[in-house]
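Each record in this resource describes a single protein on a pair of labelled lines. An example record follows, reproduced without changes.
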Amino acid sequence: MDFDVNGVLWYPVSSLNNYAGKPESGIPSPLFRWDIARGGKPEWCGCIGTPERGGAWMSDLYISKDNIMYAANSNHSLDGPGLIGVDLNIYEPTRADFKELLVDDYFNPHSPRYIESALMIH
C-alpha cells in the first residue's frame, strides 16, 4: 500500500482460495483507494490489471513521485510474476468509467490450461 501525490491511500486485497482437493484457480485482487486524511471511506476501484491479465496475490504496491502506481504479483500458476503499472493521473479522473469484464483465463476454474498446471504443482 502507498499514498499517491494527493495523499490518497491505494491498496490491493489478495485472497487465496482453499484448494481442498481442487486444482488451483486464481482469485482477482481488487484495488481500493481511501482518502483517509479528508474523512473518506474505502472505495472499490475494480480488479487491478487489465481485462486480459488480472493481478492475483499482490505482494507490493508503490506509487512514484510522478503518480505512477506499480504493483507486483506472484504469478499465474506456472507463469512468471507480474508487474502492473497504472498512471493514476490518467486513471483517477476516469476510474468510474471502467466497465470492462475480466477475461483472464487464470480466474476461470474450468480453464484446461490452469487445471493442468495446477495438477503439476500439487
